[in-house]
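Rather than argue in generalities, we reproduce a single protein record, letters for residues, whole numbers for local backbone shapes, just as it appears below:
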Amino acid sequence: MKAPASAPTPGSAQEPQEPRWLTDEEQHVWRSFMEGVTLLDDHLDRQLQRDAGMPHVYYGLLVKLAEAPRRRLRMTELAMLAKITRSRLSHAIARLEKNGWVCREDCPDDKRGQFAVLTDEGYEVLRQTAPGHVEAVRQAVFDRLTPQQQKSLGEIMRIVAEGLQPAEAGADLPWLR
């Protein structure tokens, strides 16, 4: 957000609580970023709904399960990897179970814990959907960027993600809610 016209200039002796308003260039970068993320998410959701009848978040869950040993992860670990709340994960897994793509299993060593397990049917859906999804990602992002821009984007997003995942106890992270 830009400073209101009547706001004191940053660094003035007034109000030490004054926000550090974005410059015009920062505002441009921020809005471009948000527009790009929103349009990319919509693009990928539409592609996956059309090709597999699932939203992008569900596809990401199937991928994480497919990459896990024995195609299974504890629900808490899956929420952390997917960067979503446990409530959102529980709802998503219920929908994926209804489709027959995932099942839940109790943890033998923890009465309260559960595993999410990718079924053979879920693996097959993922296998059939992956080529179209990869092509949608490639066309939307990688084909538009030079190799240096790709590297810079990766570095920038890694810095942002790391900064939003504090290691200290009590951090407010989605998978802890």
